[in-house]
From TrEMBL:
<keyword id="KW-0813">Transport</keyword>
<comment type="similarity">
    <text>Belongs to the MOG1 family.</text>
</comment>
<dbReference type="GO" id="GO:0005634">
    <property type="term" value="C:nucleus"/>
</dbReference>
<keyword id="KW-0653">Protein transport</keyword>
<protein>
    <recommendedName>
        <fullName>Ran guanine nucleotide release factor</fullName>
    </recommendedName>
</protein>
<dbReference type="GO" id="GO:0031267">
    <property type="term" value="F:small GTPase binding"/>
</dbReference>
<dbReference type="InterPro" id="IPR007681">
    <property type="entry name" value="Mog1"/>
</dbReference>
<dbReference type="InterPro" id="IPR016123">
    <property type="entry name" value="Mog1/PsbP_a/b/a-sand"/>
</dbReference>
<dbReference type="GO" id="GO:0005085">
    <property type="term" value="F:guanyl-nucleotide exchange factor activity"/>
</dbReference>
<dbReference type="GO" id="GO:0006606">
    <property type="term" value="P:protein import into nucleus"/>
</dbReference>
<dbReference type="Pfam" id="PF04603">
    <property type="entry name" value="Mog1"/>
</dbReference>
C-alpha cells in the first residue's frame, strides 16, 4: 500500500484540530448521506467505505475504570445483536493534550448481508477523557468489509493480525488513528462549556 497523505482539518468550528487523510471528506459540507448531530463530525473516504467519526460525549462516570468507559462507548456504537471481538484497551499519550487517552481495536463477527454475503467491521477507537470538562471525546476509525465470505476466525483479532487477510487494512487504520492521536489539539476549550 502506498503512503497516505494527511492534511490538518478544523473540527467543531475550529475548536479542535487534527490531521486526517486527504481522501476523507466532511459529510456536513460535501454530502447529504445522513444528518449529523452537532456533537459529531464524520469523514468518509472518497475511495472506499471507511470512515472516521469524532463524538463529543458526556463523560462516562458510572464505570470503575477508564478502560471500562471505553467499552461502554463501544457497546453504544455496535448493534446489540453484534458479536464483538475486542483487544485490551491500552493507555496512549496525546502530545498536544495533557489528558488520559485509551486505544482499543474491536471487530464485529461476520453477519449475513441482504445479498447473502458476509459483512464485518473493524473499529479502532481512541477515547480522550476530559475530566475537568466532564466530557469524553471518542474517535473511531471504521473499516467495513462488505460482501465477502469470511470465517469467524478471520475477524478474531488475535488470530487475524499478521495473517494478511485483514492486516493491510488494519495497519492502515492504526496508522490513521496514530496520526490523528499525534496531531490532536484542542484550541478552544470553550467548546466543552468550561473555557
Amino acid at each position: 500500500m502506498g503512503s497516505m497523505k494527511f492534511v490538518e482539518r478544523m473540527l467543531f468550528g475550529g475548536a479542535i484540530f487534527a490531521e486526517l487523510p486527504e481522501s476523507f471528506f466532511d459529510t456536513r459540507v460535501s454530502s447529504k448521506i445522513r444528518e449529523i448531530p452537532d456533537h459529531q463530525e464524520v469523514y468518509l473516504d472518497r475511495d472506499g467505505f471507511s470512515s472516521i467519526t469524532f463524538d463529543i460525549l458526556e463523560r462516562v462516570t458510572e464505570t470503575a475504570t477508564d478502560e471500562a468507559a471505553l467499552l461502554y462507548h463501544l457497546f453504544d456504537i455496535v448493534e446489540a445483536t453484534d458479536r464483538v471481538c475486542i483487544t485490551n484497551p491500552s493507555l496512549v499519550d496525546l502530545p498536544h493534550c495533557p489528558v488520559s487517552a485509551y486505544r482499543m481495536v474491536a471487530s464485529t463477527r461476520p453477519g449475513l448481508n441482504k445479498d447473502g454475503g458476509k459483512d464485518f467491521t473493524i473499529l479502532i477507537l481512541l477515547l480522550i477523557r476530559l475530566e475537568m470538562q466532564d466530557t469524553d471525546v471518542l474517535i473511531s476509525v471504521n473499516l467495513p468489509y462488505r460482501g465477502k465470505q469470511f470465517t469467524a476466525d478471520v475477524v478474531d483479532l488475535e488470530i487475524s493480525i499478521g495473517s494478511g487477510v485483514v492486516n493491510d487494512s488494519l495497519e492502515l487504520g492504526l496508522d490513521m488513528l496514530d496520526t490523528i492521536r499525534r496531531s490532536f489539539q484542542i484550541r478552544d476549550w470553550g467548546l466543552f462549556g468550561d473555557g
